[in-house]
Amino acid sequence: MHSLAFYLFSAIAVAGAVCLVTFRSPVTSAMSMVVSFLGLAALFVGLNAFFVGVIQVLVYAGAIMVLFIFIIMLLDLNSEERSKTCPALLVASLLIPALFMCQLLGVLQSTENESPKALPLTTAAAHFELDGKETKISQSLKGGDLPDVHLLGEKLFTRYNFPLQVVGVLLLVATIGVVSLSKKGSDRTAKPADQ
To answer: What is the pLDDT of residues 87-119, one digit of tens each?
Structure first.
């Protein structure tokens, strides 16, 4: 990837993320997140990860953002009054990002010393054979192709299976939370009408 394009798309992604946090309107913040997703997708395409870039646009900038906008409209977040700042929330808002940065620095320091070894494709193909039998990945590698989709699936469901399951549970919990919040909102509006 050309360095100018890298810095341009990185700036777009970071600007979208900053606007997401700073804008007060939930709809504007959601649209800023779309801009950030598009910048990330362009970075993936620049790194020759075309599948991941397309999935970034289709799944995140498309489906997930439609879901976010639907939830924002359902909860009618613009009509809520702003509450006073709580000291405990202020401490938590400073402590949680600090803990996240410490964790991120620990991960970056542990992976910094690991330098990937460049293998010939035929040698790498032998690594993906199961009990001497060829797999789709080993066949593609022997043919001189890099099977990025198959490699991504193999990594997700073998080495990173537990984090993938944790993300799935977190999304399920978030969905249940949204449904319970929307039911509480409908209960509040229904009670005065019954009385």
So the answer is: 887 888 888 888 888 887 877 776 555 556 666
Taking the C-alpha atoms of residue 151 and residue 100, their distance in angstroms, rounded to an integer, is 29
CB-based contact 72:26 (threshold 8 Å)? yes
Lowest-confidence range among 7-11, 39-43, 60-64, 164-168? 60-64
Residue 133: strand, helix, or coil = strand
CATH dotted code for 1-77:
1.20.120.1200
Angle between the 26-46 and 3-22 helix axes, to the nearest 10 degrees? Answer: 160
Q: Domain-by-domain residue ranges, the chain?
A: 1-77
> CA torsion sign, 74 to 77 to 79 to 80?
positive
Determine how many CB atoms are found less than 10 A away from the CB of residue 136.
14
Q: Among residues of the chain, what percentage have pLDDT more than 70?
A: 75
* CA 21 vs CA 7, 53, 81, 89, 161: distances in Å: 21, 24, 19, 16, 31
